[in-house]
Amino acid sequence: MLATRRHAPAPISVLHEELLWKIFLLNTYPDFDYHVNDYPLIGSGDRPLTTARQCSQVCRQWRSIYLSSSAIWGRLIDLDGLGQKTNKWRKEVVARTGEASLWVYGVAKPCNVHDFPVPFLRNNWRRVQRLFITVVGDQNSYRQGFPVAFLQNNWRRVQRLFITVISGRDTSRTLLLLDRQPMWAFLEESAPQLESFRSFKGIFDQTYKFPINASWLRNLSSVAFPHTCTPKEILNALRRMPELVSLTVFNPFPNYSEISVHPGYPHIILPKLRMLALRGNPRTVGILLEYIQPSADCSITITRLIDISMAGEDNWEEYEKYEKSLTVHIVPYFSLHPPSTVRLHFISNKWRSALSLESYSAIGSDGLVSDDRRSIIELPFPWSPVIYKLIASASFSRVTTLRIPSSRSGDESASASLLVHLLKFFNSVTTFSANDAVLYCLLQRPEKTSALFPALVTLEVIRLFLKEHNVWGEGVVAEPHEQFLKLRKEIGRPISILDLRPLSQLPRDRDNLEWEHPGLLVRWSRMIANGERRTEEYSCGDGYPEKLRFSSVVEGFEARRN
Question: Which domain of life does this protein belong to (predicted)?
Fold first, then answer.
């Protein structure tokens, strides 16, 4: 019996090869983040090319599946991952693609653009299915010898297109104009499968507008409009996109003359839209929110609101329209997706507040459009009634995690009374994540802070990569998070878990917690071999206070690093 169990196959080894192949194919999707960055960046974790290389070396069966599947390797044309000085591995990957459709993504730099990206695209353009590329460089880097004639035809396989140029306007024209015509002019009749079109920074200007009348617009499931498009142009283009699932608009162009006369904007119904991301000023964003009707299941992301002065003078009527339109969208959404995690971020330099709401994670069906069901709502004023209406609603009654991160400027600008008033609605929170600046602010109102978070279990201390020293006022000895621990203990609601995060940022010993807070579980993480991070913990009162003497560990870490 023991021998049988010892030699029993691991569960994954009994999976059918077809199922294994489907799993390996899922691993080829790059993890892009579009709403935070203007251009696609691979997110955290291993790159798909690295994953494929490692998986192909696990066993003979896996290697056989990988080597026999050109479809897998065709999706792994990672310009960054294949940018080695020697091209042996690059040639091997290209050879393994066979005649499969290609996914090409990454950054094209002046130092390597003529060695691999351009020759590869020129020779294999007819096979390109998805192109997510960021071009970096100055004007002279690309003016000479950049052959783009191959882009004039063979667009029939292209499904997804995302091109960003990080450079001056002249560079963008050199790269993206073919025979003095914009690149998308050649898409009119030759891109029947195009589903996603995203393009920013320098590609469009007042001369070359977004192609709002292109025939391929009707097939798009994902689109991103650049900053040069006015609200009216965007809405007119959306009339031709009934299949949209994801819509992004960065910095809508503030055409005040158009807005001031209130032209007849068309009402757009997008029944399949599930992700709407906007950036701009409240006036233009408000117009888009007012005239776009997505599904009730559509998550809203609004960031980097600018120009709240409304062309020189405060226009509260327009701002109120923005808040009203915003409320119409987000209330139905949160009734369907009550958040479990809320992130409040006070931006002190411009008196803007961004409220990030997360409910659950869901990977997009195409893998290239991140869909984590996160909504970010930014309002210029922390006391906005929209915020209070949301957090006081039944939809927020099940929030268990509350995070208040801080930039280097800190959250001190948010007054203690305002902060306490915001937090009093989060009665179901079990995990509170904040930095010492936020905790210090709360401690200025101890009588009201004592009533917060009746169900709190865990305190996570966000650290700011700063050396610890007394910056909290004269006579203050203990740091705010330790004072917060003491306050909770005094009111009979002690913290059960204290998470101190990376040990490298904890130069001071914490062995005083051994006798001050018996039963408290202290958790921290530290770097071990190969750059991996290990989480460790200690229960105060167990008799080994030396485990909380972090200074010697940090000193050893610094010595090894130097």
Answer: Eukaryota
Q: Which of 60-64, 113-117, 353-357 has the highest mean pLDDT?
A: 60-64
The whole-angstrom separation of Cα 336 and Cα 373 is 11
pLDDT value, residue 516: 94
Contacts of 369 (CB under 8 A, 6+ apart): 32, 34, 196, 222, 245, 246, 275
Tokens found for residue 389: 């209406």
Q: Which residues contact 107 (CB under 8 A, 6 or more apart)?
A: 79, 80, 133, 134, 135, 136
Please tell me the distance from the alpha carbon of residue 499 to that of residue 50, in angstroms, as a whole number. Answer: 32
Give the pLDDT score at 27.
86
Question: Could you tell me the two tokens for 311?
Answer: 């062309």
Decide if pLDDT at 539 tops 90: yes
Neighbouring residues of 121: CB distance < 8 A, sequence distance ≥ 6: 104, 128, 150
The SS3 assignment for 395 reads: helix
Q: Could you tell me the CA-to-CA distances from 170 to 117, 150, 205, 254 in Å, in that order? A: 21, 21, 11, 24
User: Under DSSP, is residue 208 helix (H, G, I), strand (E, B) or coil?
Assistant: coil
The secondary structure of 517-562 as a DSSP string is: STTPEEEEEEE-GGG-EEEEEEETTSS-GGGG-HHHHHHHHHHHH-
pLDDT band at 537 (very low <50, low <70, confident <90, very high): very high
Give the relative orientation of helices 60-67 and 48-55 as an angle to the nearest 10 degrees: 130
Mean pLDDT of the region 73-86: 82
Which SS3 state, helix, strand or coil, does residue 373 take? coil
Q: Residue 549: pLDDT above 60?
A: yes
Q: Rounded to whole angstroms, how far apart are CA atoms 83 and 108?
A: 10
Cα–Cα distance for residue pair 330/188, rounded to 1 Å? 36
CA distance 157 to 159: 6
Confidence band for 148, pLDDT divided at 50, 70 and 90: low
One-character DSSP codes across 32-77: B--SSSSS--B-SS--HHHHHHHHTTS-HHHHHHHHT-HHHHHT-E
Q: Any idea which of 1-15, 353-367, 422-436, 485-499 has the lowest mean pLDDT? A: 353-367
Q: Of 249, 161, 165, whose CA–CA distance to 198 is shortest?
A: 161
Task: Provide the pairing of β-strand 177-178 with 181-182.
Answer: antiparallel
